[in-house]
Amino acid sequence: MQSFPTYLCSKFWVGWVLSVQDMEFFFDCGLCEANRVLQSILTRNFENVTVNVSQCPNLSASEYGLMDIGLGGCPTLLELGGAPYLLPKVQKDKLYDIKAICRKSMGEGKILAVGAGAGPYPLRNTNCEGIFNLSISAQDEIKNGSYTAKITGLQEDCLLEPIPDTETRCALLLNLYVCRGEPGPVLKINCKKRTGHMNFIECIRKGLYEKYQDKCVGLGGLFLLKNGKAHQHVMRDFSRSPIHTESELNQWLKFFEMPGTLHAVGTLVTHEHDLDLRLQHFHSFSRTKWGGHYHYDTTPDTIEYEAYFNVAERIVRVDKPKTTHKFGRD
């Protein structure tokens, strides 16, 4: 298979090659304030809701599955590339080294990086979803709990495969929550029985937007779909013909109804600003064959979510597309 270069970064980082914008968040609402806002908005969409600020459980335990214990320490949202590098035609030269970019973004010390993006297609010899979950020690040792999800076989089944410690690339686009993996307070959310029409993440994001309007708020972390099922997609191999519309995109994607338990990692923000930010992006893995891009749950009467989020303090935007569009971001 033809090989392509792996990109790093940046306009403002000396010696790097891609544009980078690194800024403090416009508004840090704080965990306690976010707690009150989300309790109110989620109650409109779910019958049973509990939101509180609590000490983060050990997220490296098997029931959660992350590669470090917490979501604390320099909470940062990191966005690489974007949908215009996939659509309408794929730009296969857009490969990024997550380890190098996280190190440059966070400086010295250990790092936890979790989130959603396009997987390292050279590893699988095909396009794939990336479910990223890795720790980087202060000595730059990698522990990789990441997965790819791809379409396989004549029946177009979903295949979830672990990414080895030696592979730290992603392709095309990525939304990461990056921190030190330290223990500390987080937003803990439990929701059961959906009564409204919004999906779990959309409800949180729109509730924060409704409260803070022109102020930008960002969250990242993990949610578990503990009971019920979710409508999720897995990308087929790269399309040979350009994709220009949502209808063409949905014909290319392969959709599944995936059962819980699903472990979903990703980010949300309330504004794109001039950074062309993706407003929400979560990918999930499981202990079986299932993994992919979360859209919404399909079992409102039995659905159960448990989430752990932290409020981001800054955003690092790497290799923002020079020309953009607004489809393919659901």
From TrEMBL:
It is found in: Nucleus. InterPro entries: C11orf54_DUF1907. It comes from Glossina fuscipes. This is Ester hydrolase C11orf54 homolog isoform X2. The lineage of its organism: Eukaryota, Metazoa, Ecdysozoa, Arthropoda, Hexapoda. SUPFAM superfamilies: AF0104/ALDC/Ptd012-like. Coiled coil: none annotated. GO terms for cellular component: nucleus. It holds the Pfam family DUF1907. SMART domains: DUF1907. Residues 37-318 form the DUF1907 domain. One of its GO terms (molecular function) is hydrolase activity, acting on ester bonds. The keyword Nucleus applies. Keywords: Hydrolase, Metal-binding, Nucleus, Zinc. Monomer. The keyword Ion transport does not apply. Its main location: nucleus.
